[in-house]
Amino acid sequence: MNTIKKDLIYTTSLTEIHSEPVIVIDSDYKVTDINSKFLNIIKKKREDIIGTYCYNYFKDSERVKKNCAKLFEIGFFHDEELELVGHNEKDLLYNGFVYKNEKTKNSELVIIGRKIALEKNTTLNFKAS
Length: 129
Description:
It is a single chain. The chain has about 130 residues and is α+β, with helices and mostly antiparallel strands. The chain is built from 5 helices and 5 strands; from the N terminus they run αββαααβββα. A 5-stranded antiparallel sheet has the order 2-1-5-4-3. The longest helix has 14 residues, at about 5-15. It is globular, with a radius of gyration of 16 Å.
């Protein structure tokens, strides 16, 4: 098995460990990895997504385009409201961070969704008390 294929298997296993949607993009905003949770929401296959522009999979693609450069510059973001294509609920917030891929020497942005429905319910219950 060649090194590139081993690296892909390794990074894919890291994204698949999350139960929430995960997407990894390069500095050209192209998808380098994506987990099955993300794929299930957008109803696409991994091989159709890898190498395509990440902003195609968010409802507000213009906002995502504008923010990508800023995110690579800043290095991280927290609690960003982003809606995925094919996902009708606003129950996900996204956190992201930039890491340097030591093998390719390129920076990549990892975006991880997390459900906020539980947080909303907890807040509502707290306010009701």
